[in-house]
Design a protein that fits this description.
single chain; 66 residues; two-stranded antiparallel sheet
Length: 66
């Protein structure tokens, strides 16, 4: 699945890789309805991204944010 970041770069992730790329414990929803998540890159840098996700794409414990 390909999602677009706020800076127009593309974020590639697999549907089942919720725990490995995006830190769901710090996820929140902004006023535009975009998920704001911290994301770890391979070099260890952590960035904040905004992605549009449907309720079904979110992990069960974060679906209340939608």
């Amino acid at each position: 699945m390909i999602k677009t970041r706020a800076d127009n770069k593309r974020l590639m992730r697999k549907l089942k890789s919720h725990g490995s790329v995006i830190h769901w414990e710090t996820a929140s929803m902004d006023t535009l309805g975009l998920m704001v998540c911290e994301c770890s890159k391979k070099d260890g840098e952590t960035i904040k991204i905004r992605v549009f996700m449907t309720k079904e794409e979110l992990p069960k414990e974060k679906q209340n944010l939608w």
